[in-house]
Amino acid sequence: MKPIIFNISINQQEATGIKEIVGKEFEMVSVVSGAEALALYKTIYMTIRVVLVDLSITDMDGLELIKELRKISALPEYIVVSEQNHLELAIQAMKQGAYDYITKPIDPKILLHSLNNAKSFVDALKRIEKNFSEEFLVNIEKRMELIKELVQERRSEGKIATDEELLSFFSSQETEGLVKGKKITELIKSDLCADTIESMPKILVVDDEEEMRDALSDVLSLRYDIVLAEDGEGAIEKIKQNPDVDLVLLDIGLPGISGIDLMPKLQAIIPGLEIIMLTAFDDIETVVKSFRKQAFTYITKPYNPEDLFIEIAKALQKRCFTKTFPNVGRKRLSCDLSEAKKIKMIDTIAKHRESEGTDLLMEDVYVFFPQFKESGLEPTEKISSEVLHDGISYFIDHLKRAISL
Length: 405
Description:
single chain, five-stranded parallel beta sheet
């Protein structure tokens, strides 16, 4: 099933155009007013991944509508569409909880790129919900709302949330008691991509113009740890020397190798590395090539510092949520939970999959019992309904006997 977009726009011609753009990757539900949006959203919000809000709606303020929709559900991301190319309005939208701000006329590539980034963010939050045990899921919707409010606030400040801030949404009993003899803070300390006093996010700036490198360093160094390189060879060397780099600001017009061709070389060294392209030309062909090579976004020179901080914060937050939190959940689940608890949670997943018409896979079992990988069963191996009929406990006992032979 395709992810669902909830589109709120008074202009049905534009809505039809958006549907044609996104149709191969997304389903779309459209309404024409804020009132209609609020009424329908209450019944379908659990299925929505991204909400598009056109500020041209006339029955209520678009930013106020986002605020009201987020009261219903904090999980979907909100993308603002506007005819006004005003930085102040964009910042206002971000502070209200919008993930992105797109101006008309809508560029199809920009829209799809933004939607896929927003969807990834939502997927990461949903993985938090999936990976934590049922004790963690008490009032999870409210917790996710509060976590996202914190994330949005830090994002608008050009920062990312600290591990202490994120863990503050869970009680000490939850974060310590569920993992016997080991605090969850210890489990995630080495993984969590967080802006702490001891460790700021690290950004590599790659630009052949010394004046531009120095200018970016001066602007960013108060909030981030900055590393500089002047060409492709220097960038590769710096990445190897600094494997903890979180983000690269990469000039497209480098000597010897273009930024677009350098991008996959850097991402091969640090998988999941986010890259923002810098270019002196607002050229659609260049933008398309950048996105195809998995750039997070691009910024034209001369850049606006406010825009730059917003894009950097979004890129860092995406890296944090998409690369870190799934590992946090998996580490916690595979540690010292009792076998009975693990079996119960696998059984819950199996029932959920059955209700969706999908299969339980061995990779689901490996999350809780990584030692069973010795069985030689592929992670993608489906667990048949006949096996599940005998019960998860029986299946786990069978795997134990298999790896002990």
